[in-house]
Structures are given as C-alpha cells and as structure tokens.
Amino acid sequence: MDLNGKRVLVCDCDGTMPLDGKTLARACRGTDLAVSRQLCRRQIETFKDAAAAGRPLLVACTQEVPLFLETLDDMETAPEAAFTNIRERAGWSTEAPKATPKIAALLAEAALDIEPTSSVSLTSEGALLVVGTDDHAIEAAKQAAGRLDVTVLLTKATDVSPPRLMDVPVFTGKIKAARGHLGAFSLDIAGFAPAQPSSRDHLSFDEVAQSGTSTCDLILDLRGGTPLFPAPEKRDGYFNPDPGNPAAVQRALFDLVDLVGTFDKPRYVDFDADLCAHARSGITGCTRCLDVCPAGAIEPAGDSVAIDPYVCAGCGSCASVCPTGAAGYALPAGDGLFRRLRTLVHTYREGGGSNPVLLIHEFGSGDDIIDAIARSGRGLPANVLPFAVNAVTQMGLEGLLGAIVYGANRCVALVNPAKTDEAAGLTGQIDLGNAILDGLGYGADRLGLLEAADPDAVERTLYETPVPPSPAQGDFAPLGRKRALLPLALYQLRKNAPAPVDVLPLPEGAPFGTVEVRVEGCTLCLACVGACPTGALKDNPEKPMLRFREDACVQCGLCKVTCPEKVIAMEPRLSFTDDARNHIVVKEEEPYHCVRCGKEFGTQSSIERMIEKLSGHSMFADPGRLEMLKMCEDCRGVVQFEAPDQPFAGPPCPTTRTTEDYLREREELRKQANEFIADHEIAQKRDDGEPT
Questions:
Q1: Tens-digit pLDDT profile for residues 246-286
Q2: Residue 516 burial by CB count (10 A; 0-12/13-18/19+): exposed, middle or buried?
Q3: What class has domain 343-501?
Q4: CATH topology for 267-329?
Q5: Residues in contact with 97: Cβ distance below 8 Å, sequence separation at least 6, in sequence order
Q6: What digits encode the pLDDT tens for the residues 473-515?
Q7: The model's pTM
Q8: Which of 3, 300, 455, 613 has its CA 20 to 30 A from that of 566?
Q9: Looking at residue 158, what DSSP letter applies?
Q10: Domain 504-588 carries which CATH code?
Q11: Domain range annotation of the chain
C-alpha cells in the first residue's frame, strides 16, 4: 500500500497487535497491505526488497529505527525512509481491536511531506569560563583543561588554597551583567584581578583591579546562587549545576567537553516586525510575548520587539499569545502543523472513528508517558489521537479551535512535567478558547490542560473524563499567518454552532474587540489612526473622517493611550456581523475653512477645541492672535509678518535693480535728450527769424 507516494510497511510485532491488513488498507483508502509479523528480524528481507524498489518508505515502527537505518546504509542506493509509532500509541491497548481508524490516521499523518525548518549556526571554540567561590571551581577547571581552554573566575576569593600547579588561569571579580549564548557569551566584570604567583597559604590577588568585559564560548556556574540567566536550563552553553551535588557537576563537565565545533539550532520563531503591535511613537501597547518568554530571548526594539534566535529555547509561548501573528512558530515550517492536524482528524473520522480526543504532547516527555501507559497500563483509548509537537506551549488559539473545527470532540494539552511554569500563556489561550466555544453553545470543556506527571494519572484522566458530543465537522485550508487562520476557524465554528450569536462578550485581555469612541469629545486629530498597528482605525484622505474595522483590532490599547482627548475605551468581544469585516464610519465632519483665504484645513471640532483651550491664555489675550488660529498655515505666516510689531522686522531692503531697469532709464534719458535738442533747434530758428 502507498500513502503520498511512500510504500507503507506495517508489522504486528510478533502478533502483539491485532492488525487486519485489508481493514487497515480500506481505512487508509488503499489496497494490498500485507502485515508482517517480525519485520525487524525474521522478515528483514521484506524491508530490503521494499527498499530495493527505490520508492520512499514509511515504516510503522520506531523502536528498531537504528537497525533499519543500518540496513539502508549497507545498500548502494537507498531510498528515503520515515518512521512512525503505531504500537505504543495505538496497538498496545485494551481497546486495540477498535483502533484501526486511529492507526490509519497515524499512518496518513506520518506520510505527509513537511517543509524542513530553517536553522541558525552556533560556533564554539571551547573557551570555558568556570565561575565559583571556592576550591571546587579550580578542581572542575582542571578536569576540563585537557579538552577546553579554561579560565576560572572566583567571585568570593576567601580562604581558597593556591593550586600547586597553576595550569589554569585564576582571577577574581564581580559579575555585573551577563549576555549571550553558546559561542558568544559576554560578561561585564568589576574588580577583575589575576591571582598572585606568590600566594602561599591562601590565594591572593593583585591590588590593582580593572573593570571590563570578558567573552567566552561556555560557562560553568558553580556559585550555587542566583543563575546568570533566566531559565538557565534553556540557555545553550550555560551550565548551572548544584555545586553540592558532585554527580551533577560531573555530568555538566561531561556535556561541556563535547560542545566544541559548529552546531545547528532550529529557528523556532518566524517573526514579522511589520505586524508587531508592541509600540508606536514611544508608547507601549502589546507586551504579551515579553510577558511569557521564559528565556529572555525577546526585547523591545523601537516600535516592535526583537527575538534573538540564538537565545530562543523554542517554547513557542510568544507565537501562542501573539495577537497579530507577527510571531509564528516555525517548527514545523509553513502550514505543516495544520496539515498534520487536519490529516489526522479527517482520516480518523473517514476511517470510521468516532468521538476523537486530540492529545497534544511534546516529543520526548509525552512519548515517555505514552510508552509507560502502553507497557504497564491499559494503553491509550482508541479514540485518543496523540499529536506530537516540539512544545505544547506553541499551541495558539488558532490551532486549538482548528482541531475542533476539523472534528475533534475535545482537545487536551499534556504539559511537560519539567515545564509547568511555562504554561501560563497556553492556559490563557485554552481559557479564551473555552469561552468562545461555550458562548457558541459547544460547552465549556472542549479544551483542557493536563499537568499530571504520573502515567497512571494521565491514563485515568483519558479514560474517565467524559467526551462531549461530536461537533459538526468543518474544514478550512490552513493558509496564512495567525490573523488569517483565526477568522477561518471562527467562521466555521459560528456556521455550525449549536447556539450561534452575532456578538460574543469575551474576558479582559482577549485579542478581539471593538473600540468605543465618545464622538462628542473626539476632535478627529487622528492620532489613533497613526498609532494603530493593524489598520483597524483609518482616516479618509478626502475629508475629516474616522473609520473602524473590528475584525482587525487586537485590543493592544495603543489608540487608547495615544488619544489626547481620552475619549477611547476598549471592549473585548467577538463580532460575527458583516459590519465587523468592514471599515465603519465612527465620526465625520466638514473641514474648517480659513477665514482669510477660504482654504480647507483642520476640522471644525479641532479648531474650536483649540480656540476654547487657548482663549484664556495670556499669549492670546489680543483678539487678533485668536483670529490667527482660524487661518491656514500659509495665511497665518503672512499675517504674522505683516504685523507692525513683527519682532523679526529689519530696515527696508533696497529694491533690486535689473537689466530692464537700466534699459528703461537709458531709453528715458535718450528721449529727454532728443526733446532737449528739438527744443534748442526751435529756439535757434526763432532767434534767426526763420519759420519754426
């Protein structure tokens, strides 16, 4: 059987899974599926023959991946191969006889071609800084000195024994600030001084200390106090073991010596600064991503934020809570997550499955819990569809609601037990999603968060939690970023809602809503239009007008804090009306006409408000000064310079003489000369008695 151009190989693992090849093939809309019994051992030739055909392979086994890859390596030309786990996730379960639709869904999901994620490179040359307070720091540095370029910094250098052999440089100093990541750490150090070679019973240091910046590739922090970075376990290249736990210190040293070279790290977040609603003109609006980032990878950067891909630990909380979609999770890249989600749920339902519950879990931690449930418990219920992601905290409202649209009865996020402190953003998205679903009549328990670390507790929850009735299955193509996907999901939910409403009130902080403008106090200054990062507020180039489009508003509040008249209020809600998808006129009025030239400028309300506020000011006691406020910028300048008390007036400037002036004067002189000559000749003739 082929799926998406891949030859599918399925094994019942020595008969421990009740698989029927014909039934499974029908559920996958395929034919001719032969189920092996021991593909990894006795029937390895079946795998080799399939590989020899040259077509890409999809093998329904993950336990024996090393063996299969080794087999492919021994071939001259080997095809690409993908692997998926149907045993622990479906076949090893008390409900395995009913799991055929689920297995078909898992195979269809695994057969998809997902766009690879881009990456960034981190380069470490092995420069290690060991920070400590006592002899343990020097001992640890000596252990690593054979493999790394080690320096010791003692922040408290009291009663430290001098090493017999000074094979690692030792300094003292106080760390003021730390920045960076694997291969590019930078520390600001005060009181920096080297150890004196003459130290006898205890280490002493040069009295002349300096302040400066130290750089290194790796840091081993053995101070035992406050870490240098937030979420220290997420900072690549920084190790902060308990100095009182020798095993933890040795494990850190073991990991450190391997961190030399160039390492590729996924670029977890795709960020578009043009969509960011963080700030405008120095006024802060949205801070959702800054509030939830545990690694300190996000910082304000003018009107937007900056996400450092080298520091980012990939939790995805920023993408989950970002209201505009400026931050999008890129693992997988593009629409890969939605394609997997859509394929999984649709294939399950089309294969005859009912009441699907989507179990979102992380690769690794979630797989371990599912493995324990399958091996020591009842296994996953046949209707629970495991959906592995890099971080459950990456799931945003669009993904959670999209799962319900595609046909999932319920959606549960299994939080990594080691990351429960990072779940605040996801919890907010789940609460908001439940509020929307409840308001549309779907019920308030469609989305859930599961924080149990005990596999038995997870199993009990999955089996005992009631599954709500099946929603009407919808569909939408997963195209665009978050702000394009959300309306598609919401439209489908509203279309199939048990209790559709036109306007749904939402809790405070929701990224949907309207702005209420007290139009009687609005002067149409349009400061709000300039501040709005999403174009929800717009003007009209033809006349003074303020327009608002509700489905573009993310409730960032920039318009509210920017408004000089303080006439804007926020109202979180979700509107499904046609008006919400169009720019509706909030206020309009005729422009003000200059009292001197009649030119249109400003608005009636803004000019009148300005005159009202300045009429009592001493600088405008003269009525003429107030009259100037009613003039356009050109006339105001002319009147200002025509005033007799114009302070910048100087003596009259001489008129500039031009060529025409000289020619005209010369012509007048010639005319005068001709007239003089004529008069003289007439007088001469008269004196001579000649007729004139």
A1: 999 999 999 999 999 999 999 999 999 999 999 998 999 99
A2: middle
A3: alpha beta
A4: Alpha-Beta Plaits (3.30.70)
A5: 18
A6: 899 988 888 888 999 999 999 999 999 999 999 999 999 999 9
A7: 0.85
A8: 300
A9: S
A10: 3.30.70.3270
A11: 2-83, 121-264, 267-329, 343-501, 504-588, 591-642, 660-692
